[in-house]
Amino acid sequence: MVGFKNRYMLMEVFLDPDKDLLGEGTPIILTQFNLSKAIKDSILVNFGECGLGSSMGSFQVKYVNPITKLCIVRSSREEHRQVWSAITLVKSIGNCPVVLNLLDISGCIRACRDTALKCDKEKFEQSSKSLSEEETRQMNSCLDKIKLLEN
Length: 151
Prior knowledge:
The chain is an alpha+beta fold. Helices cover 44% and strands 24% of the residues. A hairpin with a 2-residue loop joins β4 (92-93) and β5 (96-106). The relative contact order is 0.22.
């Protein structure tokens, strides 16, 4: 029996402070749903319905940390370049302009998880002094969640 061949992409989301919000209100809170919708919309616009259909076979946003803005996206090995291209072309999530930066691409979730854990810990240490108690609790919860991440 042959398993599905997937690629895992570790990305960093930058909220663009130089541009004004496209609508009124505060910047969007990063969630799996918001990120998934933005990537799917980008695939649809840039590659059409056929591209969207072929990419959705194993597409999933596996992990999102709303504090450090790191996320892991899974896609099939055959379609990962198309998903990667669409991720590069995402300009906004909701009404908030963003820039997505690919940090790592891996064939297994463990390697991507380890890299994400390392990046999350470094960002947490850099900003731990400026975080409130609630944000620190939420960050620790995200770190625990990524340690449990598997297929």
